[in-house]
Amino acid sequence: MENVHLIIDGQAVTAEKGTTVLQAAKSLGINIPTLCHDDRLEDYGGCRMCMVEIETKRGRKRLVASCVYPVEEGLQVQTSTEKVNKIRRMIIELLWPAWQPYAEEYGVTSSRFKTGMTDCSLCGLCLRYCADVKKANRIYFEGRGIERKPALVEGSELQCRACGECFTLCGSGWIASRC
């Protein structure tokens, strides 16, 4: 397989083509916060907490979700710029209070947004695990915007309780509290 060379937070790294920026950063011991990422599932990029700032060889800068963005030759990556941290703070506010584990790290003490959920981070890990790994499709999102919330297919409580595999993925405990 072909290798590419890039720079992450000033550190040179060689990664296999097809590797994501998140994986390359992990190989250097650089922590990029994630909520919707799990190594057992296909990368999703839904939570956007893993945003990083990249600069291509042509000098173009932009923000990307590191869990789905593939490494490129000559790519320059910054994992903690003011732009990146501002985005992370807003994400924490939008999903307040479910994302409080990150709140202290990013200096967020409250949210200026009206939120509909109080106990679910809307990361989708339980839904994706149930659909992609278990092939059961017993959990889904209903509603839109601040009304969006996870729901169980009617009559699924007993099957979900018996399986319970997605319970460990849920940082808020929502799914376990419903079964």
Task: Provide key terms for this protein.
179 residues, five-stranded mixed sheet, two-stranded antiparallel sheet, 7 strands, alpha+beta
Portion in helices: 25-40%
Task: Give, in order, the helices and strands.
Answer: EEHEEEHHHEEHH
Indicate the proportion of strand residues: 15-25%
Look at the helices and sheets and give the structural class. alpha+beta
Account of the protein in words:
- By secondary structure, the chain is of the alpha+beta class.
- Strands 2-1-5-3-4 form a 5-stranded mixed sheet, with helices on both faces. The protein has a two-stranded antiparallel sheet with strand order 6-7.
- A hairpin with a 5-residue loop joins strand 3 and strand 4.
- Helix 2 packs antiparallel against helix 3.
- The protein is globular and about 55 Å long.
Layout of secondary structure:
Elements: E1 3-8, E2 11-16, H1 21-27, E3 51-55, E4 61-65, E5 76-78, H2 82-94, H3 100-106, H4 125-133, E6 139-142, E7 149-152, H5 157-163, H6 174-178
Parallel strand pairs: 1-5
Antiparallel strand pairs: 1-2, 3-4, 3-5, 6-7
Helix pairs in contact: 2-3
What's the short version?
Helices cover 27% and strands 18% of the residues. The protein has helices at residues 21-27, 82-94, 100-106, 125-133, 157-163, 174-178, and strands at 3-8, 11-16, 51-55, 61-65, 76-78, 139-142, 149-152. The protein is globular, with a radius of gyration of 18 Å.
